[in-house]
Each structure stands twice: as structure tokens, then as C-alpha cells.
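Order emerges. One example.
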Amino acid sequence: MRRLPEVDALRGLMLVWMTFTHLPTIASIFSNQPFGFVSAAEGFIFLSALLAGRVYFRVAERDGAPVMQRKLVLRTLRLYGYHAFLMAFAFVVVAQLAVMGDRPGLYNLLTYYFVAGPKRAVIDAALLLYRPPLLDILPMYIFFLILTPIVLSLCTRIGWKPILATSIALWAGAQFGLRVGAYNLIAHFDRGFIPLDQMGAFDLWAWQMLWVVGLWCGVRWAKGDLPATTWARRFLVPACFIIPPLLFLRYALGHGIELGAYEPMFDKWHLGVVRLFDFAAIAAVLVRFHSTLKPLAVRPLVLLGQSSLQVFCAHLFFCFFGLALMGNATKVNGWQQVLLLSVTFSAMLMTAKIFGKSASKGSQGRGGRSFSPTPATNPSEG
């Protein structure tokens, strides 16, 4: 299976974008949704699902569904290990730094840990229920990986229409409070259940649709039946009428213009409908002009994208360090923020090189191929 460097570079760009947004520097002001009502999270999740659908569907076709399921289970366990390590670091190191000095940024990151106690926080984190800020994307990713073998197995039995219809229905329900309703039902029978605001900002009932649609596109890509270029060409004119006004509105907010009652339609955490249109429009432009943008697929971005999950985990350590360095200020200032950004991106690139070499050696050991179609042994896919 031929690897497309521009797709890897796009994932790498999402990581760079996400890092600029997460680090407490002045750069976060400019990197927070600079292209409209779209964030790096949407791109990261969709591209990950796209590649997962493409790779694992081919594994199922070549080796059978049980092999595909086993590889996905192994990959999920590996990511769960990353999650467990990050949470352990947060509870053991970050929590100690938070209480040692005036560091509200770190303390607010782990509010539930301090209120409910370490034992309860550890249990809820192990169950993927406790998802603190910054640490809530990886558990969501794990949930979606658990969903993936079910979706890929069902699509061969019942087709994609009922799967997509169900996914869209759940997304629609999320726009009208499905998450709160489901939580209240559970909390009714378990009074001591973790507070909803400690279960991560992302509404999984809504975001699952982005993952399922990504899987669908990935499977069609694997079959050679993904008319992305044709779709982008047809959608280009509508995109030109969608992107500019939303970009203007994005920067006009707070300067005499407010969303008011329409705010839920723009909400990131519930994946509001306007965000979907904006995401689709920007995607159409990128696909339509991908040949022009191909030279932007520089080697560092490709490397970051090929080991995206390991790099994502690595950048979180520097987010913790930045919050500790920030103290009770609103951001890291002066030369410190330049140093923080430089060290962070250097470490991310080093992480990508280390894991990239590891994957390359594993691939060569299986027959000298530069790319393995089995992502359970190649950490850059999925």
C-alpha cells in the first residue's frame, strides 16, 4: 500500500497547529481557529479515521475479519498504555507541582483529582471516565478505536447506509442534549458517578459521526471508490460562499457581533452543524488544489504525521511544563515562551524520528518493504 506523504504532512500540520494552541504562549491567541470555525481536532480525528478505515479494511479483506479485529485490539491496548502513562505522570508529577506553588493552571487541570481523591480519580481514569483538559483527546480516540472493528464488520454485513444513518441520528441527538440525558440516566442510579464536567469537553455522541464518516471514506478509498476529486470540484463553488463569511464572522465575534441563540450551531465540543459545513468546505478546497499544495509536504511535517500519536503524547509533557512555568500568569512571557516553543517542537521531531526508525526497521524485518499495510505493527497509521 503506497503511503501518501501529503496526507502524513497534513496530519503533521494538525499536530503543529494543536501544539501552538495548547502551549500557554502568545502563539495560542493566533492559532486558535485561525481559518474559521474549524480546529485541528476535527482534522486530526477525521484523518485518523480515514487512514484506519483504509488500512484495516484491507487487512480484513486480505487476512480476514478476526485478524483485523486482533490487530485493532492490540493497537487499542497500546494506546491505552499511552493513556495510562500520561495519567500516571499527571497524578504523580503534575499534581505535586500544582500544590507546591501558585500554579492555578496546573491545579485547574486536575480539579477532580484533588476534590474526589487520588483513589477515585485513578479508578475513573482507568475506566476512561475521568478525562481532564488536554488529556481528553486520547481517551476519545481509544473509544473510537473500540468502535472501529464493530463498524468495519457491520459494513460488510448490512452495508453503510444504516451505519451512517445511525451515526447521524446520534449526532443530531447530541445537538439536543443527548449527552446530558444519558448522563442523568446513569447518575440517577449511581449518585456517586463522576461529574459530567470532568468527563472531557468533547461530546462523544457528536464526534463519533466524524470518525464513522472518516471510516466510510477510508473503506471507499481502499476499494478505489472514493471520488474525492469529483466531489471537491462540485463543492468548490458552494465552498467559496461558505468559507469567507464564516472566516469574517470568526474574527468579528466579540467586536460588536455575538452569536446569541445560534451559538450551539457553532459549538466545537458538540460539533455544531456550522462547523461541519465549514470543515467540508475547507476540505473541498484542500482536495481540489492538493497538487498545488503538494510541495508543502515538507519532510518534518511528514515525519510528525507518520508517528502522530506518539508525537501527540510527547507534546503534552511540554504543555504541563508550560503551565508550571506560567505560574499564576495568563501565559508564558518573554524569552521563556520562545525557548518553550523551540524545545517542544525539537522534542516532537525527535520523537517522530525515533518512532519512525522503529517502524521502518520492523517493516524491513518483515520483508524489506518501506511501508507495512498492517498498522498494528506500524504506529503511524490509524
In short: The chain has one domain: 5-228+294-365.
